[in-house]
Amino acid sequence: MTDHQCVEFLQWALPQLGLRWPGFRKVRGQVHKRIVRRLRDLELTHIAEYRRHLADNPAEWTVLDACLRISISRFYRDRDVFDHLRDSVLPNLARAAQRRGEHRLSVWSAGCASGEEPYSVALIWMQHVRPEFPDLALHILATDADQTMLQRADRARYPASSVKDVPADWKQGTFVRNDGEYQLAPQFRDLVQFRQADIRVDTPTDSFSLIFCRNLVFTYFDEPLQRQVLAALSERLLPGGSLVIGKHESLPANTTGLIPDPARLGFFRRA
Predict the structure, then answer these.
(1) Which of 23, 97, 197, 269 satisfies CB 3.0 to 4.6 Å to 220 for a cystine?
(2) 195 pLDDT tier (thresholds 50, 70, 90)
C-alpha cells in the first residue's frame, strides 16, 4: 500500500468513526504500518480488498479503530504546561478545595496512554504542592481505551527517553534504575487509579477539580464528537475547576462556560 493509497483510505474511513483527517496527517506513517500489518494478518494484498472486508464484516471497524489510536507520551511533556500547573493552577485548586471544606482533590487524566501524564501530576503534588497542604489528599483517575497501554502504566517502568524532561532534582527518590529502565516509586504510583474507558462512550460519574484531555479529542475527533465529549467533560468539572487540553489545540467555536487561562497553554477554567 502506497502513502497515497493510505491517505485516500483514511480520508474515506475516518469520518465513519467520528474522526478527522487533519489530525492524522502528521502521524499517518504510524497508522500506515498498522494497517499494512492488519492486511497481512487477513491475507489481503490490496487496500480495496480491506474496504470490501469492512463492508462484509462490521466488527472489523472496531479493529480498525484500535489501529488508529495514537499514543505519544513522556513525563513532563510540554514543560511550560507542567510548570504552570505546579506554580499556579494546582495550588489554586488546592486552596479552593480547602475553602470548600474538602479533604481530597480529584483529578482525571483522560486518554492517559502509558501513564506518564497522571504520574507527572503525582510528582508535582508530592514534590512541590503537598507540603503546603498536608491535610489535603490527591486522587488521580487515569483512563484510556487501550488495555495494553494501561498495563504498561500499571507497571510504571519507563525508558530513559520517557523521563528526560523530569526536573533533575526530582529524580532522586522518585525513580529506581532497574535493568536500564526507571521504576517509579510506590508513593507516587499509589496516587493514581487506572481504568479502561473509551471517552467517546464512557465517562466517570465523579466530579473533578482538574481534568486533563490533551492531544486526543481536539486533535483526532470530528467537531460533532468534540462537542459531545466536551459536554461530558464540562459536566464532570467542578465550578472553578480547570480543563487542560493540548497547548496547540483549540475548543470548538462558540464554546461557552470555559474561560481561557491568561497563560493560555491549553488551560481553561469552568465559570
Answers:
(1) 23
(2) very high
